[in-house]
Amino acid sequence: MRERCRKVVAAICAGFFAIAPGWASDRPAEIRRHALSLVAKPAYASDFKHFDWVNPDAPKGGRVRLFDDGAFDNLNEFTAKGVTAIGVSLISAPLMEDSRDEPATGYCLICEWVSHPPDYGSVTFGLRPEARFSDGKPITPEDVIWSLEALKKAHPLYAFYYKNVVKAEKLGSHEVRFSFDKTGNRELPFIVGELTVLPKHYWEGTDAQGRQRNLAETTMEPPVGAGPYRIEKVDAGRTVTLRRMPDWWAKDLALTRGQWNFDQIVFESFRERVAGFQAFKAGGIDFWRETSSKDWSTAYDVPPVRSGLIKRDRLKVDRVAPMLGLAFNMRRPQFKDARVRQAFNLAFDFETARRNLFFDLYGRLESYFDNSELKARGLPEGRELELLKAAGEGVPPEVFTTPYANPIAGTPQAVRDNLRKAHALLAAAGWRIVDGRLLDDRGVPFTTEILLATPSFERIALAIKEPLGKLGIEVGVRTVDVSQYKRRTDRFDFDVVFELVAQSISPGNELREFFGSASAMREGSKNRVGIANPAVDALIEALIFAKDRDELVAATRALDRVLLWNHYMVPLWYSPEQWIAHWDRFGRPARMPALDAAFTRTWWEDKAKAAAIDRAAGRANVPPAGG
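and the corresponding structure tokens:
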């Protein structure tokens, strides 16, 4: 699934829409807007010239080479099958484009305006007459309607995500309306605005071999899209080369000015990050987003960094910390009891890991919505307490009596105390130690496997394995390639994985996919843990249909408590920064966006710097793509 859609699923949410300046409406009950926001009034009025976080006069041109993790076998980002090349997201475009400086805010891109009634029972888009696909065909209401229907058929995630959109109809030559099965869901107009518009004529046609195209299947044929780039060249499993479209229909819009500046973007695929990082240091990759505290602290003492050819930056990001946790597959019998899951948290010595493995660069997560006002604090009260009392079965009693806190270790005595508590919980859950092994009442030993998709997590998995062994739990650690990892996690064929659940400042419909009962057994869903808790379902619905921001915050905090006290995951770590490294061949805006480095979107090649780098570094010994 393409990057933009991943962001939508993790980030968009319920909230309230601010009425933005716009056009007069031909339906008095609706106001035409140029933008929608789920948290506040959009920062830019309808007559804005460009975003403040871009250089509106950024030069176009040049080439950049980027890292892609895993050998791809697919160029269709909208199917659940195969491993999709990451770069293909740039060939597509949605009805509305996000702002990298405002959470949960979208501005009209393919649409010229958007409107919805006060009860949020539908949403209407007026399409830009100049909007075109890369083959020159105009974008029509038929394309928009077909896109929704086809996406829902092609991928179960879209079917689930857009299930409340029950009707799409053409109202005019450039106008389309979507109707919902319920009113009061303030998020639905926004999430429909994130719909990727696909060319009906292309996908209903045949390929060069005369075969019928199918959005639900993998393909290595470069698709047609409406975005700023087209696929220029493909070396299967190794590289995808994108070419900027100089005549892109949206190039002069205010919301695209100063963006998508590279003429050519080459995504180089490597089977694992170690090989990709070596290629970066050798000059084969131009930009690197570091995710390892160990590597950030120890792996950059190399000549290009010391001489200034490679620059490093720590960028503050203003967003909800994603929940990174050790996720249990509760479909496995050994993880059905919450006391067992809690024992794993007690066994993990985060404080020692932070010193020895993380170089004191990470903080400990204490919430599914950390680093934000959505994080539960203290004991519930007011509206939050009312929601928890009404949620019914599935709310642990500790929610009402004890603020959630992770166990603290870091000293030998604290570690021993935590292991004693963990042993007591396991015993209460029916497990006993015999000859150093943890057995159930039938004499079956407690065994589990931590499944990894990258060797970079092996040292963390081993730090978790060692104390669990002291509890008699037999832990295996297995690292597999990306395609096998995806197959196994899609089919829930795992015991324990490291899971990242990104959240937004206004969570909403996507929580049904992450934590809802309806997604617990659906193959390919994002509910890796298998949560099927009626209280969680009730709180998600309260959150989605919140009447205002205060109600949403209360419902989110209540949900946070229930998720934490059920011990579905062992919360791990987060950083409020992005760590990036790049060869010093680029320019970037004077003011960076608050949410992301937005490299491909806002940076550009500085020709003088690039020439100097090429002269100083040379390219004769660049490792070949693919590691």
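(Above: one complete record from the training split.) The domain at 1-316+576-627 is CATH 3.40.190.10 (D-Maltodextrin-Binding Protein; domain 2).
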